[in-house]
Every structure is written in structure tokens, then in C-alpha cells.
């Protein structure tokens, strides 16, 4: 079925098609439509799920943990302040190995109050162990929710599907909504082997000393690494079944590129015409959009970026005192390589500042002009 | 005499509680009433340790350890997860200390209760944060010494009336209990099991190290708390109708206070102050019970 839907509703449709059994969520702009549509889907009987209308995001995640621990496929969604409020229980969901899927709409953190897009909210949670997918189209949001469950349920780790506020959350695009039977074949009903089960009483999360905690963390890391392959496989399989393949990254005119932009989310979509323009002007430009940020596709990026003349990264997030996260991590991934290209790190679009074609072009032209980057942060168009 | 408490034990031996731990006793009786078709969640509290270190567990039922402030809503989540899979006959129990209930967990508990999610919440009340070394909580009684309320500046605030707060949510059933009256506790749990919605049980659980009392007095102190009217046993049905579970002739409050180091510093005058507060509250409960009589006469049985 073809349907014009907004980004937020793509999350709801993703949850519906995945046959989420429990939903616990709390409203926050710009996420509210996700919850509203899901409530309606439940009320109309289109979605046979328990909907817990909790009193906070903290409780949304805590309820999701309970439901997931009981063996149910569980969905929630939030943004910014709500995600930050969940922080303690985000760690809990990972440590308890619960395959919860959550949508997060990137919104800048207050104060000052703001509702516009920026990735610092989800980037702040990168060390909680949640796997993170950064999307760049309405279709991809919906498809990613379905893939997220498929990966989460194999490695017993939670997944966050991330999208830009307004630029994606409130933009309408034509979407292919696949048949339920096809999605069921791709994503069968989940039987959690470690669920709370009165037939097999066991305690989960009890006091653990240094003699075992270390090993439990090792296992999380190993399964996180394994999820990298699984994201690739499930993305490929998704392509075979639905005609839309997905990978860890998406590239554009990369093959012969000498100067490569690495970025994420909607900025990557805007960057395509810039690449075309630059090529017309004689610059061999190319693009890498990082889709899966956790686990970080270090190997793949090493392969794709080694030997290029220059790499620039645009981050719509900031780790104060350091730089943008995509820049930081891409640079770290290439540090030990002999032919690592010099790397420029641009911060743009914080708090929802537009990142139009000419801003992206400016970052390219700056990078082309210079021989070597100065410092780790280049601000673009900031009023000083 | 006929015993009303099931003989079968669900809880195993080998738990890590101190000698004379009321919280451990409370659990043992609770599991006898709840039976093995029960799933529990514990927030941070003494019971996160008592149950035993990984991979051991003393409770004998599935258990999800959770963050300090989340017990009620994790139980809501477990309930929803079970209901989604049609396992509606399993008891879901949040089991938390007074800190996890009266203080840091009150928001989630209020949410769960307002939604009337079908769970049993048991607060074992040892009247301080014992797990972290006996700091005051809002359940610590007036006059008590804790590690954050020293004798020269003992707790100046009265114990929070948690049952009243729950009642204000129109909760179907809330009851107080004591480890010294296990028949009463088991009966209340059985009633809680028999009805849908949120059920809250508030059980006084003596704590020898926290109360600075002898372990062998644990049950006796829990009984004296009831007999001196310090911790009355009563129920509130539908958030409005009160019923005293027993109405013992009042013993002098000093019988309860004297054996406990946490009250040793109190002067005679201060003890008299405390006594007045106890009487005031007891009077209030009796009045409420009197007002509620017609309701229970109509209801009969339970
Ligand atoms: C968010 C958070 N803050 C603080 C703590 C530390 N902490 C663990 S248990 C506890 C006190 C528990 O008191 P109570 O609920 O009364 O249970 P008890 O230990 O008395 O059985 C505290 C403060 C924690 N685990 N989590
Ligand atoms: S400190 Fe008190 S509540 Fe905790 S285990 Fe010891 S006796 Fe029980
Ligand atoms: Mg306590």
C-alpha cells in the first residue's frame, strides 16, 4: 500500500507492522504524533497491544523493561528531555539484555527551551549500550523499526531508531507500507529464551561482584560487534524481500572521490545535490552517510576513507570541549592507518539552524582551500 | 488451634539477611500466600542483597532486579507483557523498601496506582534506608535517630502517611500489616490476590541493626508496635472505607521505645509528645472505621 505519511507516523507504522505487543510512552514535542497514532491503532483494534499511558519517560522505559522482560515485543518513543530523563534506565535495559525498540526524535537540549533538531540528545546516550540507527527518509524510518527488532532480538540488545525533529518527524513523504504477511515472514513472533518464567524461576540483575561483572560486559561488547554483521545481513535481506536494501552506511558518488563528506541523517540528503554541483565544477566529491552509529562501523569506514585526499565531517551535535561525535569517531577509526586522510570537523545546524545546500557547499570549499585542518571544530556561519 | 498459613515454603534457605530481619520474614510469609505462580521485581533495597549474589536467588520465583525508583511501573510492564501473552493468572508483585516507596519511587507508584494496573505492591517498611547504612527516609518516625538524624537533632518530621496517599488514588485495596501477625498478613495478601487493580500492602518489618535492637526481639517489637498503637493494623477499601484489623488495648509506648537504641535519647517529655501524636492518629483511624461500618455491613464476608 502506498500512503503519504509523516516521519512520526512512520515510527508508529513500523511498530504496528512489527506487531509490538506492549507500548509505553509519554508525549513530548516533536514526538507526540507517534504516540497518538499508536493509541488510535490500539483503540481501533488495528494493533493488538497493551498501551501503558505512563506518567513520565522514566516510567515509559521502566515499563518497557518490565514488558520486555516478560517476553513481549515492546516499543516506545521519545525525544531530548525525555530521553535524558531515561538515562539511568537506558543503561538498565542494556544490562538486562532487553530487545526494546525505541524511536528518538532528535531535538536540542534545553535550556534555553527549544524544540528544533540536533543530535546531542541521542549522542549523549551513546555509551548506554543502545544500538543506534540514524535515518534520513520517512520510508527508512519505518523500515528501520522492523529491521531493528530483527537485530535486537538476536543479540538481546535494545535499539534506538533516530530521526531529525521536524525535518523528518513532521515531513510527509510517500511511503510503501508492506503487507503484514510479508513483514511477518521477515520478522516472526519472538520467543525470548530468558524471559521471566514461573516454570523456570531465576533472578535477573542481582548483585554481581568483580568476578563476573567484567565478563558480562565482555559479552555485551561481543554481541554489539555481532550486531554489526546482523545489521548488514538484515538490511540486505530486507532489500531482497521489499526491494529496499539497507547497509551500515550509504554512499553517493564515492568510487573515484578525492574529497569525501561524512555526515548523517537529513544533512546527508541535502548534500547530494552539492556533490553533483561540485562534480560539475571539477571537484571529485563524494558522500558517506553513517546510518548505523552504534556499533560504529569502523572497519567499513577505514576501507571507504583510506587513501582519499581529504575528508570533512558535518556534525549536528557537539561534545563540549571536544568536537562533534561523528567527526571524533571517524577520526578515531582512521588514526592507526598509514594513509589516513586529513579530516575537517564542522559543527552546523545546532538547535535546528537550517543546513541548506550553500552551507554544505561552503564546508566543501573551505576544506578544498586548506592544506591541513586547524583545530577540531570549525563553526560555519556562527554570529560571533 | 487451626493454622491458616500454608505449610509449603516457596522461599529457600541461604538468604543474606541479618539475624532477626523482619524483611526476610515478611517475604517468607508473603510467598506462602502468593505461591509459585508469582513474578517479582525489587528496586534497590536490602532485598537486592538479601536474595543473594549472582547466580543465587532465595525467593524461588522469577525476579527482576530494577532501578531504585521504578518498582511499581516495572511491575506494570511485566503485567502488560504477561497479559499480552494471555498469562493473566500470574501474580505480579513489586516488593520495595520504604525509601523506594515513600520517597524516590512515589512518582512511578502514583502512576501505576492511578492507572489501577493489576499488580500487588508490598512495601516492607523498616523506617530508614538500611541498605545504605540507616539514613532517614520520609517513613522514619518522629524522634528516631538515623545516620543522618543524630540524637542531638533527631528526626523532627512525622512519618509520611503513605496509606492515605494511596487511598487518595481510590486504590481498590490497601492494608497495613506486621511480621508479628502473619495470619493477618496472609489473609490480606489472599484478598489482594482475589481482586483486580492495584493493591498496596504496607508491612512493618523490624530491623535490628537499624533500630539498634536485639535480633531476638524482632517479632516482639513488631507486635509491640501494634499493641502500643504506633503502627495500627487496618485496611482501606476503595480508597474510602476503613476497617481496623485489630483494636488492642493500648500498652504504654515506652514498652516499644525502650528496647530500641534509635529512641534512647528521647526525654520523658519528648516521649509524651510522641505518645500524643500516636493517639491523635489512632483516634483518626477509629473515627474513619466507625464512619465506614455501614459499608462493611453491606459487603459482609470481606
Ligand atoms: C537512583 C539511586 N539513588 C540512590 C541509590 C542508593 N540506594 C540504594 S538502596 C537505598 C536505600 C534503600 O532504602 P529502602 O527503600 O528503605 O530499603 P532498605 O534498604 O531499607 O531495605 C539507596 C539510597 C540507588 N541505588 N539508586
Ligand atoms: S539491615 Fe535490616 S532490613 Fe536490612 S537485612 Fe539487615 S535486618 Fe534486614
Ligand atoms: Mg528501609
Task: Describe the 3D structure.
The complex is a heterodimer of chains A (384) and B (302). Chain A has two domains: 2-242, Thiamin diphosphate (ThDP)-binding fold, Pyr/PP domains (Rossmann fold, 3-Layer(aba) Sandwich), CATH 3.40.50.970; 249-379, Rossmann fold. Chain A is 42% helix and 18% strand. Chain A has helices spanning 7-17, 32-43, 57-69, 80-85, 87-95, 120-123, 138-155, 180-186, 210-242, 265-280, 298-305, 325-334, 357-369, and strands spanning 2-6, 22-24, 50-52, 74-79, 101-106, 131-134, 159-164, 172-176, 203-204, 249-252, 259-263, 285-290, 292-294, 310-315, 343-347, 378-379. Chain A has a seven-stranded mixed sheet, sandwiched between helices. A six-stranded mixed sheet of chain A has the order 10-12-11-14-15-16, sandwiched between helices. Chain A has a two-stranded antiparallel ribbon with strand order 1-8. Chain A starts with a strand and ends in a 5-residue tail after the last strand. With 302 residues, chain B is α/β, with parallel strands linked by helices. Chain B has one domain (22-301): 3-Layer(aba) Sandwich (Rossmann fold), CATH 3.40.50. Chain B is 39% helix and 14% strand. In chain B, helix 1 (22-34) packs across helix 7 and helix 3 (71-84) packs parallel to helix 5 (106-115). The mean pLDDT of chain B is 97. The chains are: A alpha/beta (384), B alpha/beta (302). The interface between A and B is large, with 42 and 46 residues. Strand 9 of chain A pairs parallel with strand 2 of chain B. Iron/sulfur cluster binds at residues 17-18, 21, 23, 46, 50, 126, 130, 207-210 of chain B.
Ordered list of secondary-structure elements with their pairings:
The complex is a heterodimer of chains A (384) and B (302).
Chain A: E1 2-6, H1 7-17, E2 22-24, H2 32-43, E3 50-52, H3 57-69, E4 74-79, H4 80-85, H5 87-95, E5 101-106, H6 120-123, E6 131-134, H7 138-155, E7 159-164, E8 172-176, H8 180-186, E9 203-204, H9 210-242, E10 249-252, E11 259-263, H10 265-280, E12 285-290, E13 292-294, H11 298-305, E14 310-315, H12 325-334, E15 343-347, H13 357-369, E16 378-379
Parallel strand pairs in A: 2-3, 2-4, 4-5, 5-7, 6-7, 11-12, 11-14, 14-15, 15-16
Antiparallel strand pairs in A: 1-8, 6-13, 10-12
Helix pairs in contact in A: 1-2, 1-7, 3-5, 7-9, 10-13, 11-12
Chain B: H1 22-34, E1 38-42, H2 46-50, E2 63-65, H3 71-84, E3 91-97, H4 98-103, H5 106-115, E4 120-125, H6 162-167, E5 173-178, H7 182-194, E6 199-204, H8 208-211, H9 218-227, E7 234-237, E8 241-244, H10 253-257, H11 268-299
Parallel strand pairs in B: 1-2, 1-3, 3-4, 4-6, 5-6
Antiparallel strand pairs in B: 5-7, 7-8
Bound molecules: thiamine diphosphate, iron/sulfur cluster (SF4) and magnesium ion.
Amino acid at each position: 500500500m502506498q500512503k503519504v505519511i509523516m516521519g512520526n507516523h512512520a515510527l508508529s507504522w513500523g511498530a504496528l507492522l512489527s506487531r509490538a505487543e506492549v507500548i509505553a510512552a509519554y508525549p513530548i514535542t516533536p514526538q507526540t504524533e507517534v504516540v497518538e497514532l499508536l493509541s488510535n491503532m490500539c483503540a481501533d483494534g488495528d494493533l493488538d497491544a497493551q498501551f501503558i499511558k505512563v506518567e513520565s519517560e522514566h516510567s515509559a522505559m521502566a515499563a518497557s523493561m518490565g514488558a520486555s522482560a516478560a517476553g513481549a515485543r515492546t516499543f516506545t518513543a521519545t525525544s531530548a528531555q525525555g530521553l535524558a530523563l531515561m538515562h539511568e534506565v537506558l543503561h538498565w535495559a542494556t544490562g538486562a539484555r532487553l530487545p526494546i525498540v525505541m524511536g528518538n526524535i532528535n531535538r536540542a537540549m534545553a535550556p534555553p527551551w527549544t524544540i528544533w533538531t540536533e543530535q546531542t540528545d541521542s549522542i549523549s546516550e551513546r555509551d548506554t549500550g543502545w544500538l543506534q540507527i540514524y535515518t534520513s527518509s520517512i520510508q527508512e524510518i519505518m523500515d528501520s523499526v522492523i529491521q531493528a527488532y530483527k537485530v535486537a532480538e538476536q543479540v538481546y540488545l535494545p535499539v534506538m531508531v533516530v530521526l531529525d525533529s521536524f525535518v523528518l518527524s513532521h515531513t510527509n513523504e510517500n511511503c510503501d507500507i508492506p503487507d503484514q504477511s510479508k513483514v511477518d515472514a521477515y520478522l516472526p513472533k519472538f520467543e525470548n529464551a530468558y524471559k521471566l518464567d514461573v516454570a523456570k524461576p531465576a533472578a535477573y540483575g542481582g548483585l554481581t561482584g568483580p568476578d563476573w561483572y567484567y565478563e558480562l560486559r565482555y559479552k555485551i561488547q561481543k554481541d554489539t560487534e555481532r550486531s554489526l554483521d546482523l545489521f548488514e545481513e538484515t538490511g540486505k535481506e530486507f532489500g531482497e524481500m521489499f526491494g529496499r536494501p539497507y547497509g551500515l552506511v550509504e554512499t553517493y558518488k564515492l568510487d573515484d572521490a578525492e574529497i569525501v563528506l561524512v555526515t548523517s541523517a537529513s544533512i546527508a540528503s541535502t548534500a547530494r545535490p552539492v556533490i553533483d554541483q561540485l562534480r560539475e565544477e571539477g571537484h571529485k566529491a563524494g558522500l558517506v552517510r553513517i546510518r548505523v552509529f552504534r556499533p560504529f562501523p569502523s572497519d567499513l569506514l577505514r576501507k571507504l576513507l583510506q587513501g582519499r585526499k581529504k575528508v570533512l565531517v558535518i556534525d549536528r551535535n557537539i561534545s563540549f570541549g571536544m568536537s562533534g561525535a561523528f567527526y571524533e569517531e571517524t577520526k578515531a577509526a582512521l588514526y592507526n592507518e598509514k594513509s589516513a586522510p586529513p579530516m575537517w570537523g564542522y559543527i552546523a545546524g545546532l538547535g535546528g539552524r537550517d543546513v541548506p545546500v550553500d552551507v554544505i557547499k561552503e564546508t566543501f570549499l573551505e576544506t578544498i582551500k586548506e592544506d591541513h585542518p586547524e583545530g577540531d571544530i570549525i563553526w560555519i556561519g556562527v554570529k560571533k | 488451634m487451626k493454622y491458616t498459613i500454608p505449610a509449603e515454603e516457596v522461599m529457600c534457605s541461604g538468604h543474606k539477611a541479618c539475624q532477626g530481619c523482619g524483611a526476610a520474614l515478611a517475604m517468607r510469609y508473603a510467598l506462602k500466600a502468593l505461591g509459585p505462580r508469582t513474578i517479582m521485581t525489587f528496586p534497590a533495597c536490602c532485598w537486592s542483597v538479601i536474595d543473594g549474589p549472582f547466580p543465587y536467588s532465595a525467593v524461588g520465583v522469577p525476579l527482576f532486579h530494577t532501578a531504585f525508583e521504578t518498582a511499581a511501573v516495572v511491575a506494570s510492564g511485566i503485567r502488560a507483557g504477561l497479559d499480552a501473552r494471555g498469562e493473566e493468572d500470574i501474580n505480579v508483585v513489586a516488593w520495595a523498601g520504604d525509601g523506594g516507596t515513600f520517597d524516590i519511587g512515589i512518582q512511578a507508584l502514583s502512576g501505576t496506582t492511578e492507572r489501577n494496573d493489576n499488580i500487588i505492591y508490598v512495601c516492607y517498611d523498616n523506617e530508614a534506608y538500611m541498605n545504605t547504612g540507616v539514613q532517614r527516609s520520609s517513613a522514619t518516625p518522629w524522634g528516631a535517630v538515623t545516620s543522618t538524624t543524630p540524637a542531638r537533632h533527631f528526626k523532627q518530621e512525622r512519618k509520611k502517611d503513605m496509606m492515605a496517599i494511596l487511598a487518595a488514588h481510590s486504590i481498590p485495596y490497601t492494608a497495613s500489616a506486621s511480621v508479628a501477625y502473619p495470619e493477618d498478613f496472609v489473609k490480606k495478601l489472599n484478598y489482594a490476590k482475589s481482586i483486580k487493580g492495584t493493591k498496596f500492602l504496607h508491612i512493618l518489618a523490624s530491623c535490628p541493626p537499624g533500630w539498634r535492637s536485639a535480633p531476638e526481639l524482632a517479632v516482639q517489637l513488631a507486635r509491640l508496635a501494634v499493641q502500643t498503637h504506633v503502627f495500627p493494623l487496618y485496611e482501606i477499601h476503595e480508597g474510602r472505607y476503613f476497617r481496623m484489623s485489630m483494636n488492642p488495648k493500648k500498652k504504654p509506648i515506652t514498652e516499644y521505645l525502650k528496647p530500641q537504641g534509635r529512641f534512647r535519647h528521647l526525654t520523658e517529655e519528648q516521649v509524651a509528645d510522641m505518645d500524643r501524636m500516636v493517639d491523635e492518629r489512632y483516634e483518626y483511624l477509629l473515627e474513619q472505621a466507625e464512619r465506614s461500618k455501614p459499608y462493611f455491613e453491606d459487603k459482609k464476608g470481606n
